[in-house]
Amino acid sequence: MATGDRIRKTAAPDEPFRKSTGRVSFPHRMSLDLTTEQYEWLKEVAWQNRESGSGFLRLIIDKLMADEGQVAKLVKKKR
Hints:
Helix content: 40-55%
Radius of gyration: 16 Å
Strand order of the largest sheet: 1-2
Distance between the termini: 36 Å
Number of strands: 2
Strand content: 5-15%
Number of helices: 3
Largest sheet: 2 strands, antiparallel
């Protein structure tokens, strides 16, 4: 079985949408492996800002998408 054969297509829309419960649903999910320190930091900063951890990560991604120069700086610092 090829890798592409294992990807299941869902009926999810291409854009986020609000469910009848009021929660927003997004078309893509990702699992992250975090250290305990990273997890605790994310949980705390999200709570302090009245945001979910995933919402906080989406905010960070949006900011980086808007300024590609920041991505280059982060990657350069890591090396």
